[in-house]
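User: My collaborator sent over this chain with a note saying "see what the structure looks like." That's all I know about it. Can you take a look?
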Amino acid sequence: MFGIRDRGSTVGREVLGGLTTFMAMSYILFVQVGLLGSKGVGMNDGGVLMAMCISAGIACILMGIWANYPIALAPGMGENIIFIGFAATMTGWGAGYLGWQMALALTALAGAIFLLLSTVGLRSRVLNAIPDSLKSGIAAGIGLFIAVIGFSYGNLVVPGGALVDFPGFEGNIEAWLTMIGLAVTLALLAFRIRGAILIGILATTGIALVLGKTQWQAPLAMPGGLTQTAGGFVPGFANLWKAIPGHGLEIVTMLFILLFMDLFDTVGTLVGVAKHANLMREGRLPRAERALAADAAGTVIGGCLGSSTVTSYIESITGVQAGARTGLAAVVTGVCLLAAMFFGPLVQMVMGEFGAGKFPMIAPALIVVGAMMLRAIRDINWDDATEYIPAFLTMIAMPLAYSISAGIAIGFVSYAFGKLVTGRIKECPIIVYVFAVLFIIQYAFVMPKG
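Assistant: Without extra context I'll predict from the sequence alone. Here is the result:
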């Protein structure tokens, strides 16, 4: 069914890869509740957790069975921040406006539009039209982005007077745990031990248990609260309709931002993961429209149940590195996400008891994977400035802007400009020119400042 032998894998590797991906992305279970729950935009904590697990789990299973790729999906971090901003903005429109319900309605609408665009093949054409040098730049840029996230989670860097500061190791237990986990993972990888990344995560968690930085949790807890969030999009749509006369342009702008963010976050992740797993065929991703449809279906389900935009996850690279090459790994991750509704306390143990945004048990995995993804730069044509400069701008912009979409935007614009100014117009696909113009419009006139 999955063609496991044809892709040079085994069932064991696929299961291990799926589990590894789940462990690497499991932080979203708690970050999501923190951002959208009672301490965030005011949604029910249990409802947010259930909505996320159900929508992401179904999306992963669809990705695995229908598209047969080892790519996991869950609510995107960038999209979460936008969701919060939209909810706050719409609440500020006056009495009677339901902020998070309206944001859910926009999310569901964006997902439905994406599902339609996926069925007609527009999104897959965008993905397959990306030039090879930009594909390599995107893959490497995501690697740098992942590594930066890992350094932040491990408290190895903090925001500072420059871009970041190094806080040192004195009293910095997160940094010590990160470095220990990094050393364990590096040693295991050097000896070519399969499952090195997952073993590194578990070993670091064991040390944190001994040090008292995480506590053993009762493994089971019954989920609840979905009725408090599911269907919230219905009054949200009513509110959006009511707001059109006075805020129609703002609503269209919000929808435009959601569409652009999800399109290029997903495209960038698919390219990065597929290239790393050697799943590209002559520069194209087979069954791309199916992968994109799974992403869109997850967003629709999430918007209806009470979750923000579901998108493909860059942490899928950890599963690929552990050996995953087929959709079975995504199915395993999806089952884990569905089960996480019942094992929330156990997953919490892996996340530990650290400061906000600190996850040292996961940080080493992200740093190592980021390093692995930089291998993509060897495929860039370093003798052609119109190829290597856009690729470089793409890869450096992602970690600096903390956004996959921003990196792709500057890559598209610079690539189109380079081919245009040198008279090599036909070397750039038409669709790249079109989106380069749209990106310029987005960032110059549409995207809100800050």
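A starting point for your reply to your collaborator: The longest strand covers residues 73-75.
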